[in-house]
Amino acid sequence: MYCPWCGMQAGSWTWAFWILVLLLVALVVLAVVLVMVLRPWAKGGTSDAAHGGYHDSGEGALRILDERFARGEIDEEEYARRRSLLLGSAGKASSESA
Q1: Which residue has the higher pLDDT, 67 or 88?
Q2: Do the bridges between strand 8-9 and strand 2-3 make them parallel or antiparallel, or are there none, so unpaired?
Q3: Contacts for 80-84 with beta carbons within 8 Å, 24 or more apart?
Q4: Segments forming the whole domain that contains residue 87
């Protein structure tokens, strides 16, 4: 059988080779798609923007602050001070008293 792409005679092994190459390429594409889709869940979290999470609303900082307080990294006083700063109540109170 003549192979028009390679310019030489091609046996049945050539077609089998190209079928295997096609399958390998398909598997690589599938693997890349799976990694891109499943990557947000790889570390136990979710994609913030894709799932309506803490995107540009300031809630991400509050969530992190809550987690640090729960782990005991900061005490109650530090937690309350930082939370009031994030929520803006400290800034409003200081501007009203001035």
Answers
A1: 67
A2: antiparallel
A3: none
A4: 59-97
| Residue found by looking up tokens 């540009």 in the block | 56
Report helix, strand or coil for 88. coil
What pTM did the predictor assign? 0.36
> What are 53's two structure tokens?
């999470």
Q: What is the pLDDT of residues 12-27, one digit of tens each?
A: 677 788 899 999 999 9
The answer to whether the Cα torsion of 16, 18, 24, 26 is positive or negative is: negative
Contact indicator for 79, 69 with CB cutoff of 8 Å: yes
Residue 79, H or E segment? helix 76-87
Residues 25/33, Cβ–Cβ less than 8 Å: no
| Residue 53 falls inside a structural domain | no
Q: Quick check: is 54 in a domain?
A: no
